């Protein structure tokens, strides 16, 4: 019966690419479940080559000044990260926040398209799952309940769920947002850090001592929210905290 109902739904609402909206073959929907046509899927080009060892963003090719860490005349930390203190070891970003990736993330945030978050999560998991360390719990960066109700879902939870499913586990939703802070967009990096200071906490009854965690979010811009969550986890005894983001905002004048 379930299969018959699914066929009827597909006939009434045929699957479409979540980017260009072109029709997809049914086996694409029920098989790979990425909700992307072959052409749009090719537009997802993962970041490659050496990147900043903190944020994971691309590094400029020119020789850095003396204040930067250098290995064989190349910087290993970008100029933005070089001036900050981090409580996580490093970030791993899959894509640059540009073009199709940017458009789809905006669909998630501003058009409340949950299926896009789920599709991107599966795509991301297919690329990085084998590189996720065993034994580290995947922790989605939490939204404030008010914002989550307005959107209808938490995109970081959807992304973390896809990553966790690829490792045959579930996300560790051990953090909660206690302050409904203003949006980070438009704020100076220092203002971003101040905006999220003490805006998160570990859920009551959760013991993080001696454990390893990977914080998961959609975009890395300055890393302020991720860094604040990492600070809280480390202060409570977590052994190691790193981060993973679907994309990283790459500025033209600096590296991240």
Distance between the termini: 51 Å
Q: Which secondary-structure class do the elements indicate?
A: alpha/beta
| Low-confidence runs of at least 5 consecutive residues | 5-10, 28-32, 61-66, 68-73
DSSP helix fraction: 25-40%
Q: Note the overall shape.
A: globular
Report the major sheet: 4 strands, parallel
Number of helices: 9
Kindly state the mean pLDDT as a whole number?
84
Write down the Rg: 19 Å
Task: Tell me how many strands there are.
Answer: 8
Q: What percentage of amino acids are in beta strands?
A: 5-15%
Q: Which strand order do you get reading across the main beta sheet?
A: 3-8-7-4
Order of helices and strands: HHHEEEHHEHHEHEEHE
Written description of the protein model:
The chain has 256 residues and is α/β, with parallel strands linked by helices. It is built from nine helices and eight strands. Helices cover 34% and strands 15% of the residues. The strands form three sheets. It has a four-stranded parallel β-sheet with strand order 3-8-7-4. Strands 1-2 form a two-stranded antiparallel ribbon. Strand 7, helix 9 (224-235) and strand 8 (240-248) form a beta-alpha-beta unit. Helix 4 crosses helix 5 and helix 5 runs parallel beside helix 7 (155-166).
